[in-house]
Design brief:
Blueprint: H1 3-19, E1 30-32, E2 39-43, H2 45-55, H3 61-75, E3 82-88, E4 91-96, H4 98-112, E5 125-129, H5 141-160, E6 163-170, H6 175-187, H7 197-214, H8 218-230, H9 234-258, E7 264-267, H10 272-284, E8 289-290, E9 297-300, H11 301-305, E10 313-317, H12 325-340, E11 344-350, H13 354-366, E12 375-380, E13 383-385, E14 389-390, H14 401-419, H15 425-445, E15 453-454, H16 457-460, H17 468-484, H18 501-523, H19 527-546, H20 554-577
Parallel strand pairs: 5-6, 5-11, 6-7, 11-12, 13-15
Antiparallel strand pairs: 1-2, 2-4, 3-4, 8-9, 9-10, 13-14
Helix pairs in contact: 1-3, 2-3, 4-18, 4-20, 5-18, 6-7, 6-8, 7-9, 10-12, 12-13, 14-15, 17-19, 17-20, 18-19, 18-20, 19-20
The protein binds arginine (ARG).
Length: about 575
């Protein structure tokens, strides 16, 4: 908000320090919350201590800091928008003019619109790998948290100023695919999925799993098919390609529904051979122990690192020379950096793979790659259904996205019908869909990613609690005030009246958006923005209840209209970072 002014002030401070033979320092500002004024402050303690040390004299550091702060307060020329400077206990406090500041915050949000909070380019190119479903299998709610989290993290990093490459990594080979093809050839040959592809693929997988378990010949047949695959039997490869595409089409439908896009797709099949080459390299370098034919090829990480029970042993190739999950990840990590010249590589993966990820990262480090400090595992916890049912494809407790959406949309539609019965049916349906998707996403993003989400319909669709519909509804209210006032936003103005508490809080929260974006990006936490959106909605609702708009005098009305528009814009920005749309009406 005050970047230029801040620079001017820092210049003056540094000039003062120089003139007085004091050490120069990077000036850190902290925020002064509203107490009649907003402001910013900086402390001179560290500088005073440094000075004392440099001069080798004993002095009272507190008093010295205060002396410096006072000296600066005396000479400083305050830029426009600042009201006064004071030196208190070693701090220099600079107070903004409340009127000017309240005008500026609103002007900034409204002029920047959806770009509000965008950070300057950081020069970082970050790849975020997320979603990573296995083809030929179902896509359930556990996978959903990954997509929703990964997508939001991408939005946040991008907004914070990073260049982001959105990557997916599809598990398109392995036993599960062979098993699927075996079942297909034997019992479904010639069939094609018509609609709801992912469910159909998942059903055949479940059937394959069951038959594999029940049928005595299954194991031998599956192994024979695996051998054909290994020989790259043309018919099998062709079937694999075709059926894999079905899965990809099905996943695309899901991504469309969720509004998620990828810049690059990786496939497990493309890093298998290159992975084996890396295993050879590991053996050559003496990092991997080749225990074939009796055993596998392993990297004894604890032995190599001198640790105990920390990294354990990573198996990188089977005794029969076939590849493993790890074989491919070694190659994938390198490929990413080489292809995209990354500065950072983030993996959004289930928390249960944490040790595994550390093993991969450590192995890369031992191989001497320079970027291994910039490999990051963003772990997330599982999603439970109410009643503590874990969603898993094996025990049949899977809930599909489509089922969830159908249910969510029906519930949301019922609420919209109640609130706004006169809207056209089509509009109601669209709103219900936006509300349903929002409810789903928010319930997963408003919890720390390291905590389990227990999915609960009542809570997710709560119009009165910490849930997306409540937040969306606050923005819709702001919109309806603006519509009532004729739909034309008044031009920039400062409030000529004493702001109420909820107005002060609103301005505070709106001004906090850019900082929270930076903090979320740094810590990879969507939670901060989910909370900020909720706080904005809550305070806006207080404002809506307590501060009349239309019936007030012109200055009050116009300022409050702009404040409403700004609050709405701030909510839209926060929700958009979570991948959630804000409807115009509800
Ligand atoms: N497809 C894997 C699974 O379903 C997840 C892949 C995660 N990414 C990775 N680079 N290992 O478990």
């Amino acid at each position: 908000m005050f970047e230029n002014e801040q620079k001017l002030i820092e210049k003056q401070i540094n000039a003062y320090l120089k003139e007085n033979g004091l050490p120069e320092a990077a000036i850190q500002w902290t925020w002064i919350p509203f107490s009649g004024n907003w402001g910013m402050a900086t402390s001179f303690f560290q500088l005073a201590a440094q000075d004392a040390k440099a001069k080798g004299v004993k002095m009272n550091v507190g008093a010295h800091a205060q002396e410096i702060a006072q000296g600066i307060a005396d000479i400083i020329q305050l830029p426009d928008g600042f009201e006064r400077a004071e030196a208190v206990r070693g701090y220099l406090n600079l107070y903004f003019s409340t009127k000017d500041y309240s005008r500026r915050v609103i002007d900034t949000v409204l002029s920047e619109g959806n770009d509000y909070g965008k950070g300057a380019p950081t020069g970082e190119r970050v790849m975020v790998e997320f979603s990573q479903p296995n083809t030929h299998k179902a896509f359930h709610v556990g996978h959903l948290r990954n997509v929703i989290l990964g997508n939001s993290v991408c939005n946040i990093l991008e907004k914070s100023g990073d260049e982001v490459v959105r990557a997916n990594y599809l598990g398109d080979i392995g036993l599960h695919v062979i098993k699927w093809m075996w079942c297909y050839l034997k019992y479904h040959n010639g069939e094609k999925p018509a609609e709801d592809i992912t469910r159909w693929m998942g059903d055949i997988y479940a059937e394959a799993d069951r038959r594999h378990h029940d049928e005595p010949d299954a194991d031998a047949e599956i192994r024979a098919l695996f051998a054909r695959w290994d020989r790259r039997d043309q018919d099998i490869v062709a079937l694999w390609k075709e059926t894999r595409q079905w899965s990809l089409d099905g996943f695309d439908d899901i991504y469309d529904e969720l509004g998620v896009k990828f810049d690059h797709l990786y496939f497990e099949s493309e890093v298998e051979d290159s992975g084996k080459v890396i295993v050879d390299e590991l053996i050559e370098k003496g990092l991997a122990t080749d225990e074939r034919p009796e055993g596998a090829v392993v990297v004894k990480l604890d032995d190599l690192c001198g640790t105990k029970d920390k990294y354990r042993v990573l198996v990188v190739l089977r005794s029969d020379g076939t590849s493993l999950y790890a074989t491919k990840d070694l190659s994938l990590a390198i490929k990413k950096f080489e292809q995209f010249d990354l500065t950072k590589s983030i993996y959004v993966i289930d928390v249960r793979q944490s040790l595994y990820m550390q093993q991969i990262f450590k192995t890369m480090e031992l191989m001497g790659y320079p970027w291994t400090k910039n490999l990051i595992h963003l772990a997330y916890e599982i999603v439970n259904l109410p009643g503590n049912v874990t969603m898993s494809s094996r025990d049949g407790t899977v809930v599909f996205l489509q089922d969830l959406l159908v249910e969510a949309t029906a519930r949301a539609l019922a609420i919209v019908n109640e609130k706004n019965p006169e809207l056209p049916e089509e509009t109601k349906k669209e709103i219900a869909h936006t509300v349903a998707i929002g409810a789903l996403k928010y319930s997963m993003l408003s919890r720390d990613n390291t905590k389990i989400v227990t999915f609960d319909w009542e809570a997710a669709l709560d119009f009165n609690g910490q849930a997306a519909p409540y937040i969306q509804y606050a923005a819709v209210r702001a919109n309806s005030i603006l519509r009532k006032a004729g739909g034309v936003l008044p031009g920039s103005l400062a409030p000529e009246y004493e702001l109420t508490d909820s107005e002060v809080q609103l301005i505070d929260l709106i001004a906090r958006v850019p900082k929270e974006i930076q903090r979320s990006a740094k810590e990879l936490k969507t939670l901060y923005l989910a909370n900020l959106a909720y706080d904005l909605a809550q305070v806006y609702n207080n404002f809506y209840r307590n501060c009349p708009v239309i019936q007030e005098n012109e200055n009050v009305m116009n300022y409050r209209l702009r404040l409403s528009a700004a609050a709405r814009q701030a909510i839209i920005v926060c929700l958009a970072l979570l991948g959630i749309d804000t409807p115009e009406m509800m």
